[in-house]
Amino acid sequence: MNGKKAIFCWSGGKDSSFALYKILQTSEYEVVALFTIINENFKRVSMHGVKEELIELQATHIGIPLIKMYVKTGSNDEYEKNMEAFLLTQKEKGVDYVVFGDIFLEDLRAYRDKNLEKVKMKGIYPLWKIDTKELAHEFIDLGFKTILCCTNDSYLSDKEVGCVFDLNLLNNLPANVDPCGENGEFHTFCFDGPIFKEPINIEVGEKLYRPLEIKTDSDHPCSTENKTQGFWFCELSNI
Predict the structure, then answer these.
(1) Centroid of chain to Cα 137
(2) Alpha carbon distance 213, 92 (integer Å)
(3) CATH of 4-124, one of 3.40.50.620, 3.40.50.1980, 3.30.450.40, 3.40.640.10
(4) What's the whole-number mean pLDDT along residues 58-77?
(5) Per-domain residue ranges for the chain?
(6) What is the DSSP-derived secondary structure letter of residue 25?
(7) Burial bucket for residue 104 (CB in 10 Å: 0-12, 13-18, 19+)
(8) Can you give the pLDDT at residue 75?
């Protein structure tokens, strides 16, 4: 491939999967690697709670190398320091672009772009400003399969966590829940679809509740003003 070299900010969820699908449909960019931020203490994706080995399995089934960036404290200072060092390493390898699955959160995009400007890189947003209901239906119609691995209990409950994101679930979401969960209402793990060489066999295990440690926007780049009480997680395993 001769496209512009890019790395992909990979969470393992449906928006990442759909954005990757969109970017791979063009010849403008060459995605040389997926990169995921992992909590080093728990060996899991922050917020999603998905185990590190499942992210590795996704990359194998997609066929794109995976690079992991570890954080311990989850503080904003740690995140920015580690991210800048990571991006500079990629810049030295000829990578000038980072692809994200964000859809409409202006403050988050501004934060990402500000960090990228420090190392003279640019962000690419394949899903930006597309109607989220339209995105959700197209995602399902294309044959993607994803499971809710985390729900914000200000919007959803333990009944939804562990469920497959399909038309039935989409049509029964509460009116205050974005169809793509863009406001943090839920997070997902994608296990099948057109970007995968073969599906990942997933088993849903124990459901766990974790109270929220309230943060402000200055504490963490992805924090929100929402005063939720906590999150429901389900343990996912490969079978």
Answers:
(1) 18
(2) 37
(3) 3.40.50.620
(4) 93
(5) 4-124, 142-238
(6) T
(7) middle
(8) 86
